Amino acid sequence: MAKGYLSLVLHAHLPFIRHPEYENFLEENWLFEAITDTYIPLINVFDNLISDGVDFRITVSLSPTLIDMLRDDLLVSRYLKRLDRLITLAGMEAGRTRPEERINRLALMYLDRFKQAKYVFSEKYGNDLTGAFKKFQDLGKVEVITCCATHGYLPFMDLHRPAVKAQVRVAVDLYKEVFGKIPNGMWLPEHGYHPGHDEILRDVGIRYFFVEAHGILFGTPRPGYGIYSPYLCGSGTAVFGRDMESSKAVWSSREGYPGDHNYREYYRDIGFDLDYDYIRPFINGCGARVNTGIKYHRITGESDHKDIYERQAAMDTAAAHAEDFVFNREKQVEHLSGMMDRSPVIVSSYDAELFGHWWFEGPDWLEFLLRKLHSSRDKVKTITPSGYLDLYEKYPGITPSQSSWGWKGYSEVWLDGSNDWIYRHLHKMAELMTDAARDHKNATGRSRRVLNQMARELLLAQSSDWAFIMKSGTFDGYAADRTRGHIGRFLALHDQLRTGNIDMKMLGETESKYNLFRNIDYSVYA
């Protein structure tokens, strides 16, 4: 048994964005960028480690909306077209920058990167990256867990408990369909915990979940091991607390590793730097300048001046930061083990999209880290939450405090003046959905289709992403439109169900556009 354990958790999630009515849609790029910048690089890291015989354990949460988008034929075909455009653009850049040796090396790097991404996506994993994560899980290296159906913020749904249950049950059903078993763990959206929700997780077979550190530290009774051990809720479901020290070292762009001046600058892209006529065929269909993913500069400093990115210097920095992370975890474990009667576990959890998309070198840092931990595993060893729960026969009990992550840690991000208007609608929709599911038990034919689509519209309206985007003020118009659209379609479908006058054209178009959770059963609300 190791002196201490590190449980790395990456939460991969994007809201469901699919617009077949447009040839190009700007917000679909969120998925395409994440595939190229984050998911494929992480898959490459895991494949490299396995190929070299490096033992590691890591947990990856794949949200149901992300899983459905990764398996959607339309989005897959659009992603491949985007990759082909990027390969063409990078080839042009390799020619254009030939007189500038340092930039030319970077152009060639991007050309290789995009070609390799296409090989991994299409040839190696058959256009289905969920198959890659299933492979890693089957090999015992990656524990794949899930999240709520559409990343709905559960504490604000508790007024209608069936809505909470539906978010959980729909997620578990999709996971079983893809991975062939019940997930061991669940990432609560925004780490939002409300007392009693652990019972809902227990009822579907979930073994553990996560909360922010203060959800444990302010729990009842006072936690004897701090956040360095799991605890059992009254339901028997285990809860892990997030370690802020290790998380902040990676998460913070100002105090953590990602802000180092040698790393690549995210906000400097040729989509904005180069001549418009040259770049226009490779940016958004509406003609707006957007990021291409080709960036030639490093962070440099706070000024507007940015030096040219040096890949080797960035790799050296990433390796040094991995060493620093391991050193600090070893010191942390050494300190904790002297005060505990068991080996402590440090839970370091992050948004997966930080790695590669926002922090370009993040996947490289992770690979350096896992290799280093493998070579010094007698001190700190990686482990999954399930693996740690198997180590000891007994764990202390707790009732976690209601809490979230984000600003101030108590739901402020998802309820303020910019987004509070949505909740009266969401509560009413949940009430109507619950009543409709109970009033139309065993519905068939058109009525069943309407009820299932009503469930989809409610789930989509509940996505915490819309409230977050409204709060952040970026793409807030799109978030508000999506929310209003789902509310309007739900109410229209509900009225058609009530009157029996079903608009089959509208129903078909809505089912086609918002086609996630193909096997959904509206009776989850009953």
Description:
The protein folds into two domains: 4-71 and 128-264 and 309-408, Alpha-Beta Barrel (7-stranded beta/alpha barrel); 415-525, Families 57/38 glycoside transferase, middle domain (immunoglobulin/albumin-binding domain-like, Up-down Bundle). The chain is 49% helix and 8% strand. The chain contains 19 helices and nine strands. It has helices at residues 29-51, 64-70, 73-96, 101-124, 129-138, 161-179, 197-203, 213-217, 244-251, 270-273, 276-279, 311-337, 362-375, 385-389, 422-439, 445-461, 464-472, 476-499, 504-513; strands at 4-12, 58-62, 142-147, 185-187, 208-211, 231-232, 238-241, 345-351, 380-382. Strand 6 (231-232) and strand 7 (238-241) form a beta hairpin. The radius of gyration is 24 Å and the shape is globular. The mean pLDDT is 96.
Describe the protein's topology.
Elements (H helix, E strand, L loop, with lengths): L3 E9 L16 H23 L6 E5 L1 H7 L2 H24 L4 H24 L4 H10 L3 E6 L13 H19 L5 E3 L9 H7 L4 E4 L1 H5 L13 E2 L5 E4 L2 H8 L18 H4 L2 H4 L31 H27 L7 E7 L10 H14 L4 E3 L2 H5 L32 H18 L5 H17 L2 H9 L3 H24 L4 H10 L13
Parallel strand pairs: 1-2, 1-8, 1-9, 2-3, 3-4, 4-5, 5-7
Antiparallel strand pairs: 6-7
